Amino acid sequence: MSRLSTSHMNHSAVNQSDVCQEYSCPERSVSLSVYVILYAAAAAVSLLTVFGNLLVIISVSHFKQLHTPANILILSLAVSDLLVGLFVMPFHLSWLIESCWISGPVMCSVFSFVTFQVPTVSVHTVALIAVDRFLALSSPFLYSEKISPTVICIATLFNWLFSLLYNFTLLYVNNFTDVMCPGECIYVLDEISSLVDLIVVFLMPCTLIIILYTHVFVIAKKHATAIRALQIHNRTESSKNRVSDKSERKAAFALGILVFVFLLCLLPYYIFSLTNFLKNDSFSNVINSVSVLFYLNSSINPLIYALLYPW
């Protein structure tokens, strides 16, 4: 995202030959057993991401009772996370293990574009899910009348097309095809592009997510309080009030997990990108390592957005 994985150099007027001279492929210093374990772990994480999101995609697509607006957004999120598992994780983890890009310039172009496109879609989809849940809880009658699966499909398509146009423009402005180094897969974003990317892909959607989920929690708490008052009025508080309290705690816990995990995966990367206190190989190594946590969000999403629900 601002952006994942490839070396993100937040300074303008960078000469390609100077950048490429900074990088070289060091000889592998780990033992064969450690080498095998690292690749086995990388394969396991990638497969977990692929099959977890594939399960969500098949479930939502196959069962008609799951064709709801909220589940269509979850389907879109699963598709973007599936692409991370297929086209981003294997190459990025291999790059970290080898300390060198071994997949060639063509795959570097594909890899870099996907690392721009897919996370943008993913973050904006999570924001759309927050909007959907807020509308469903705050205005249930309006939601049932106006928000149909067709409307959500149009919003999802617009999200993907907007991300495609935005990222293509961002890469074109920064001469994406001109920054390819032997043994390295890098791109250079100037300071203005980095700031715009930070706002569009991180600050705006994350601020919206936090605000809306806070409102959702407040509304849910008011509903629980109203139910408790009704139970007291009906003299059934002794048994059912505990159920209400349990539901309230469960809702708060679920919302807390959603926001906490999402921000936990995103914040470290953007903190390093924003501060950019290291402008050399050390920054490249740190940001590429922190990006792994960013990608792990695609592995965790199926558990959060699907397996915690009864269906």
Automatic annotation (TrEMBL):
<feature type="transmembrane region" description="Helical">
    <location>
        <begin position="198"/>
        <end position="220"/>
    </location>
</feature>
<dbReference type="InterPro" id="IPR050569">
    <property type="entry name" value="TAAR"/>
</dbReference>
<keyword id="KW-1133">Transmembrane helix</keyword>
<dbReference type="GO" id="GO:0001594">
    <property type="term" value="F:trace-amine receptor activity"/>
</dbReference>
<dbReference type="InterPro" id="IPR017452">
    <property type="entry name" value="GPCR_Rhodpsn_7TM"/>
</dbReference>
<keyword id="KW-0472">Membrane</keyword>
<feature type="transmembrane region" description="Helical">
    <location>
        <begin position="151"/>
        <end position="173"/>
    </location>
</feature>
<dbReference type="Pfam" id="PF00001">
    <property type="entry name" value="7tm_1"/>
</dbReference>
<dbReference type="InterPro" id="IPR000276">
    <property type="entry name" value="GPCR_Rhodpsn"/>
</dbReference>
<feature type="transmembrane region" description="Helical">
    <location>
        <begin position="251"/>
        <end position="272"/>
    </location>
</feature>
<dbReference type="GO" id="GO:0005886">
    <property type="term" value="C:plasma membrane"/>
</dbReference>
<feature type="transmembrane region" description="Helical">
    <location>
        <begin position="36"/>
        <end position="60"/>
    </location>
</feature>
<feature type="transmembrane region" description="Helical">
    <location>
        <begin position="72"/>
        <end position="97"/>
    </location>
</feature>
<feature type="transmembrane region" description="Helical">
    <location>
        <begin position="109"/>
        <end position="131"/>
    </location>
</feature>
<keyword id="KW-0807">Transducer</keyword>
<keyword id="KW-0297">G-protein coupled receptor</keyword>
<keyword id="KW-1003">Cell membrane</keyword>
<feature type="domain" description="G-protein coupled receptors family 1 profile">
    <location>
        <begin position="52"/>
        <end position="305"/>
    </location>
</feature>
<comment type="similarity">
    <text>Belongs to the G-protein coupled receptor 1 family.</text>
</comment>
<keyword id="KW-0675">Receptor</keyword>
<protein>
    <submittedName>
        <fullName>Trace amine associated receptor 14a</fullName>
    </submittedName>
</protein>
<feature type="transmembrane region" description="Helical">
    <location>
        <begin position="292"/>
        <end position="309"/>
    </location>
</feature>
<keyword id="KW-0812">Transmembrane</keyword>
